[in-house]
């Protein structure tokens, strides 16, 4: 199982300190997901595509992704992962 492709934490400084338009950030996210999932296609049966997108009260977590792309980034991330590996099981992972 691949864990995790998209997370609000542990992102590189060039990403978190950058100034991004939504289109640029969408491109970065799509490229990352496509690259990682394709790299392990056929080697991993499942992916935690988006990790911990919710606060403990069930609201959306304020993140680089949600603040700039809206909460639709979650569905888009799953769509891109599915395109990269159509047979993998895809999950949204959260601990609560």
From TrEMBL:
Catalytic reactions of this protein: Endohydrolysis of (1->4)-beta-D-xylosidic linkages in xylans
InterPro entries: GH, GH10, GH10_dom
Listed GO biological process terms: xylan catabolic process
Domain GH10: 1-96
Keywords: Carbohydrate metabolism, Glycosidase, Hydrolase, Polysaccharide degradation, Signal, Xylan degradation
EC number: 3.2.1.8
MF GO annotations: endo-1,4-beta-xylanase activity
Database matches in PROSITE patterns: GH10_2
Main enzyme class: hydrolase
Family matches, as SUPFAM superfamilies: (Trans)glycosidases
Any one Pfam family match given in the protein's UniProt record, by short name: Glyco_hydro_10
Family of this protein: Belongs to the glycosyl hydrolase 10 (cellulase F) family.
Protein name: endo-1,4-beta-xylanase
Protein's organism: uncultured organism
